[in-house]
Structure formats: structure tokens, C-alpha cells
Amino acid sequence: MASYLCMKLKPRYVLSGLEGVYYERPPFRCPNLGDHDTTIELATRFISLARVGNPNKDKWIYALSLTPLDKMKFNELLQKTTDETPCPFSIQYLECRIFNKKRKSSGPSQYFYDMDAPMEDKRGKKKTKKPKVEFDQSKCWFCLASPSVEKHLIISVGNHSYLALAKGGMVEEHFLVCPIEHHQSSIAQPDEVLNEINQFKEALRKFYKKKGNVPIFFERNYKTSHMQLQAVPIPTNANRELKEIFFDESEGQGFKLETLDPSNRLDQVIPPKVPFFAVELPDSTILYTKIQGSTNFPLNFAREVLACGPVLNMPDRSDWRECVLKKEDEELLVQRLRTEFEPYDFTVE
């Protein structure tokens, strides 16, 4: 019944407290059931909450700030996130039960769960362990081997990482540095990957300096599954009081940024698997925050700061979806940037 309701109603959130365990899985979309189901395929997020006052202090409360569907743009409803997974329910199973259709296969479920597997017995009997939900890397927008990656945006490819034009960039020279293989964040990288990413950062510093700019590097390890280090150039004179601007904006949005001690690395202050945001200023100062509890972190925070008057003064460029170019324009821009970046490209022999 629950799987059918989820498939039919396509809710944006499903919350559960029956198991008393905190768990938040990546979003998924339920395809339509039957030939007459014309419901829009919305992204669904499943959240299980722990019991109040649990000894492990796991999350037992969740705050939501939902915009009504009739107030949202249609393209926002269809926009996919980078960490979406396939629907966990078996469509064949549900159609068989609901529409009395013959099942095409008697083999295992085409997705992640065996819908005929025994459920957990509340009376303490031995329970069947559910398979772990794994992210389908073939659908990742940023894994270089994935068919989903937009290869026409790539500027340069190294041994472990690559440089690409940011889709919907704030300015023409807004880049992404990403690991070639699937790594979630900078604190979960092998040393050889991190070292090469640092080489791209140094090359970008030299590239921007030639044009009288300095780089802002930022990373949001929240609601994404593949590391993306974003690089945005700002005028050298806009660097003044940048740290204070970030602090003021973060306080205004309800969270606090901290300054990383120069003797530490991010992986020394942020535990594994903890979501975070970090920004590196032109003077190498790193500001960061851990995203925990019921925090609803603003996804466009860094862009909103950089778009403000004292920095880039581009208030209409804070949302990448409003800045996307036509594919042919992206291709022309990438061709020009490849040529301009080549003198600084360490991957060119």
C-alpha cells in the first residue's frame, strides 16, 4: 500500500518514525503507473526519524519549508538533482498487483528492493537484511565515464580530475574542477586526486591573474553526490572585506561560518559523511560550516554572496538555472576558453 501511494501520489517528502532510526536517502522519481497515469514525476525524498531522546542523539525532528506547487515554476519541478537514484519500487510488481498484468520476469526486482522479501518481524524474529541503496554512477552528471555528463563543457582532462565550464555560470570564466571517478567531496579524495585538483587551482589562479582577477573557490557537499569545486573570478579590488561579507550573509541566512586554522585541513575538522560548505578566499583563507540537524542550507548561498553589489554586482545571476546558455553558445565559449587556458594547462605536453 505504501509503495502504491508513493508511486501514485508522487509526494515531495515521505517521513516515517515507525522504525525509530534516522535515515535520509537520496531523492528518487516514481514513473507513472499504467497508461492513464499522467501525474508529473516529482522528486521524492524519504526521511526516517529516530525516537525522541534516543541515546545516540540521532535526528528525531525535521524542519521543512515547502513552496506550494502552484507557486513554483514548471521547470523547477522537473529539474533533477545530481544525487537522484532510480525508483526503489518494482513497477512490474505493482502493475501486476494493481492492474492484474502478467509479470514479465520471475527474477529479482529490476531496482534495489525485492518486494516479495519478508518484512521485519516486530516480535523479535530473525529479519531479512535489506540491500543497501547504491548510487547509480551511470546517471551521475559529473562522472566522466557516465553517458549523462555533458562532455562539450570540458576544458581540460588530467589523470584524476578535469576542468569544465560551469553550466549556468555566473560569468564566462566560471569553472568546475571535478574528480574523474565518483568521489563525493574533497575530504573523501585519494591524495593523488586532491594533488591534481590543487594543480588545476594553481593554473586557474595564473589564468585569472592575467585578466586582473582573483579566484573564489567553493564547494557544497550537500544534496549532491559528486564533488564539484567551483571557481569564480572576481576583480582584485572586490577582494576587500570579502570575509566580512560572507560572515554577514551567513548570519542573515541563519547559520555560522568558521575560519579554518591554517595549520589544519578540512578533513581534520569535518567528520566523514558530514555535509558541509567551504569557500576559499583569494588570500587562501578557508571559511566553512557543517550542515547538520534540521538546517535547511541555501543551495545558492555562494552565488548569492558573489552576486551582491560589493563583489560582482550581478543580482540576477544567483540562480544557475536562469543563466543557462544554448548548447551551441556553450560550445563556442568552451572552444575559446580552451585556447585561452592552454598556456596554463599542466595537462598539455
TrEMBL record:
One of its GO terms (biological process) is mRNA splicing, via spliceosome. It comes from Acanthoscelides obtectus. Residues 129-246 form the Cwf19-like C-terminal domain. GO terms for cellular component: post-mRNA release spliceosomal complex. This is CWF19-like protein 1. Gene3D superfamilies: HIT-like. Signal peptide: none annotated. GO terms for molecular function: RNA lariat debranching enzyme activator activity. InterPro entries: Cwf19-like, Cwf19-like_C_dom-1, Cwf19-like_C_dom-2, HIT-like_sf. Residues 256-347 form the Cwf19-like protein C-terminal domain. Belongs to the CWF19 family.
